[in-house]
């Protein structure tokens, strides 16, 4: 027995005062209405309605069940209405996970614009560089910077960032300028813990050929800003995305090395669980970010972000 349907039928019979009128209202047959009420009485172990040829009346138990069932059905209708509205109107808390440096440098200036446009959405932003499980950890959306998408979630590409291999002028003056990837084995390198290539730095050569070199770490950090600070102080060679060190390179604080070689670009993506039943707050945020990064990314512009 579909108990929810049975309660709906019972409440409709009482409200309409007739099995036949209830059947018309529910677009079913009087026999089905009778069956649902009989099954509900059997399930509850009590008679709910007194029936005779002229009228229906509630038993004492029927009165209690009717009031409670009516309240439950009204609450369900209200909940469904709220859910339907939420799928159309962006509102409520939006939990976003984003990498630390990218979140501070690039995304933080965007949030006030979004908040002004969608005042009923409450942003709850967590900044961390590790990859989170957005479903298990309760996030609506995650921003990821990666050479590959997500195999278990929907990935919407927002843009890309170049990876730049560089060092400070002081470091290069003391240790020389590497010309090809193999030269890096004789240099001090500063690493990023969450980097996809770990100890092996991958390059694309002038002719498109792929080349890999295993470097020697002097320091490894799980945050790009830490590696950047060490490089600016002359501690070694780093690779970091252009959104983090592009301005340093443009200003000459860091110098790009091996200009004939480059690392593969990395994609910046919005990750969310599913296209089905996508809430309005997630949809408008993804669209907002796509529009914000349309064209030349701010970190690639001479004017910066």
* CATH topology descriptor of the largest domain: D-Maltodextrin-Binding Protein, domain 2
Estimate percent helicity.
25-40%
What is the helix/strand order? Answer: HHHEEHEHHEEEEHEEEEHEHEEH
Text of the CATH class of the largest domain: Alpha Beta
The CATH superfamily of the largest domain is identified as Periplasmic binding protein-like II
Please name the CATH architecture of the largest domain: 3-Layer(aba) Sandwich
Strand content: 15-25%
The total number of structural domains is 3
Output mean pLDDT.
87
User: What is the rounded Rg?
Assistant: 31 Å
The major pleated sheet works out as: 5 strands, mixed
Gross morphology is: rod-shaped
Query: Number of DSSP strands?
Result: 14
N-to-C terminal Cα separation, in Å? 61 Å
Secondary-structure blueprint:
Layout: H1 3-16, H2 19-26, H3 30-44, E1 49-51, E2 56-58, H4 60-88, E3 92-98, H5 100-107, H6 111-117, E4 121-127, E5 141-146, E6 154-161, E7 163-167, H7 169-175, E8 189-192, E9 200-204, E10 210-214, E11 217-221, H8 224-232, E12 237-241, H9 242-251, E13 255-256, E14 266-272, H10 280-292
Parallel strand pairs: 3-4, 3-5, 8-11, 8-12
Antiparallel strand pairs: 1-2, 5-14, 6-14, 7-12, 7-13, 9-10
Helix pairs in contact: 1-2, 1-3, 1-4, 2-3
Keywords:
single chain, Arc Repressor Mutant, subunit A, 5-stranded mixed beta sheet, 14 strands, D-Maltodextrin-Binding Protein, domain 2, 3 domains, alpha/beta, 305 residues, 10 helices
């Amino acid at each position: 027995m579909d108990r929810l349907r049975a309660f709906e039928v019972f409440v409709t019979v009482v409200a309409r005062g007739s099995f036949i009128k209830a059947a018309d209202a529910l677009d079913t047959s009087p026999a089905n209405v009778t069956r649902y009420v009989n099954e509900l009485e059997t399930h509850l172990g009590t008679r709910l309605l007194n029936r005779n040829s002229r009228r229906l009346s509630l038993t004492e138990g029927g009165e209690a069940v009717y009031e409670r069932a009516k309240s439950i059905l009204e609450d369900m209708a209200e909940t469904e209405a709220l859910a339907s509205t939420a799928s159309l109107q962006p509102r409520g808390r939006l939990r976003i996970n984003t990498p630390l440096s990218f979140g501070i440098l690039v995304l933080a200036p965007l949030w006030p614009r979004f908040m002004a446009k969608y005042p009923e959405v409450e942003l709850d932003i967590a900044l961390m560089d590790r990859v989170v499980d957005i479903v298990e950890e309760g996030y609506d959306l995650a921003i990821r910077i990666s050479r590959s998408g997500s195999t278990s979630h929907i990935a919407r590409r927002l843009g890309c960032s170049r990876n730049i291999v560089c060092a400070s002028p002081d470091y290069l003056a003391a240790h020389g300028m590497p010309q090809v990837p193999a030269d890096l084995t004789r240099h001090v390198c500063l690493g990023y813990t969450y980097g996809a290539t770990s100890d092996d730095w991958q390059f694309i050569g002038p002719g498109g050929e792929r080349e890999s070199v295993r470097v020697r770490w002097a320091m490894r950090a799980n945050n790009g800003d830490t590696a950047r600070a060490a490089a600016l102080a002359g501690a070694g060679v780093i690779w970091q995305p252009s959104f983090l060190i592009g301005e340093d390179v443009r200003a000459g604080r860091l110098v790009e090395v091996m200009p004939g070689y480059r690392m593969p670009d990395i994609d910046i993506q919005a990750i969310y669980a599913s296209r089905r039943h996508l809430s309005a707050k997630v949809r408008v945020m993804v669209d907002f970010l796509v529009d914000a990064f349309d064209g030349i990314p701010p970190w690639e512009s001479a004017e910066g972000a």
